[in-house]
What does this fold into?
Amino acid sequence: MRILVVDDHQLFRSGLGLLLSNIYADVEISEAGDIDSALGRIAGKPAFDLILLDVAMPGMQGMEGLQQLLEQAPGTPVVMLSAIESSDEVFKAIRMGARGYILKSSNEHVLEHAISLAMSGETYIPSGIFMDSGGRLLAPTGTPGNRFDSANPLSLLTPRQRDVLACMMDGSPNKEIARGLGLLESTVKAHVKAILKKLGAANRTQASMIASQHGLGAKKPENFGAG
It folds into this structure.
């Protein structure tokens, strides 16, 4: 896996590179200290599998740097790195096409999970930023509404978590869910853990019962996206 780390602080780039090397045995890390250098890097071959981009760095006014990278490398997921815990910044980056927003205060498990989601076509967002006073997820402006009202515990789940839960209700194991939804098995495990926590369920059976009681139907993984 080839990862480009774009950050104007060399010490942070080096530290993140070491951390990524500890997580992934086969990773190749490249670094860039500004947007122009990053654009030069992605013009080369072979292509990068992932770009980790600092939000607050020279050339990033108005997220112009993100836009340039997305245009030059449309097939490469870009995940933002930031010390700024601002829902406005997160919404802006995700709406523009970023595949995630990782807080620099996050631990290596969050980093690995976020990268796993981004590489599987999903989007990672730090959920704590998007919680209202009642613990429910807020939605970015202009996105479709949740068909489950705020009193329904299923409203706490992301659309992908509801997909995973629907497969759990059918009794599908994690490996089958991962194959059917096009996810990594580790990503499915992370979703299952989050589902149980959000629903206050002790196990998969209890989570399935809660889902059934609140209007979610079971579905086999291979049937998602059909018809």
Summary: The first helix runs from residue 10 to 23. Residues 109 and 216 are 30 Å apart (CA to CA).
